[in-house]
Amino acid sequence: MKLGRINHIGVAVPDLDAAIAYYREVMGATSITEPFVLESQQVRVCFVDTPGLSGTSGTQIELLEPTSPQSPVAKWLETHPFGGQHHLCYEVPDIHEAKNWFESLGKRVLGDPRIGAHGTPIFFLHPKDMAGQLTEIMETPKAVH
Ligand code: CMX
Questions:
Q1: CATH of the domain at 85
Q2: Whole-prediction pTM
Q3: Exposed/middle/buried for 42, CB within 10 Å: 0-12, 13-18, 19+?
């Protein structure tokens, strides 16, 4: 395992439209993707682009709004009603190799690998095994350089 690029920082919000307005009007974001529903995870999602070095695309902020009271993000918001940082997502070249690596170290994978918001396989690791941080591992999208 070699530490990969941080693809995105997941931020849970109670109101996605208000959060988008905040990133545009207060933080000066100029590139925000159209929100879409990720049914499998009961969230409405969009990405705020931050600039990278030398014109490359930088880390994104993933805004997550629950679409139902049963959504895991709705449960998290019960204890963080204003929202806040929910997870960190690192890229890996091969999702299966990464899963084997973490499991070989006794790290708990939460649920099965699934397709994430970027259309590539992802999985989550238990925060108590990961220095307190809910950690998402994501296979690098093939089209991204
Ligand atoms: N930060 C810190 N701890 C967290 C946490 C968070 N954001 N979310 C959950 N936990 C803790 C729980 O309290 C629990 O702790 P204990 O085991 O000590 O009780 C532990 O992590 C496991 O959580 P859980 O909800 O019991 O586990 P599940 O298997 O039911 O859920 C999880 C797995 C955390 C991934 C899911 O609840 C979740 O948050 N899903 C949302 C995923 C998401 O953000 N999807 C959006 C798009 C994905 C993409 O980026 O592509």
A1: 3.10.180.10
A2: 0.94
A3: middle
How many domains does the chain fold into?
A: 1
**Ligand 1 in contact with 116 (CB < 6 A)?**
yes
Which amino acid, one-letter code, is at 112? Answer: D
- At residue 90, what is the residue type? Y
Residue written as tokens 């109670």? Answer: 14
Structural domain containing residue 132: 6-139
What is the per-residue pLDDT across 99-139, written as a single tens digit (0 to 9) for each?
999 999 999 999 888 999 889 999 999 999 999 999 999 99
Mutate which of 9, 37, 41 to test ligand 1's pocket (most atoms within 8 Å of Cβ)? 41
1 in any annotated domain: no
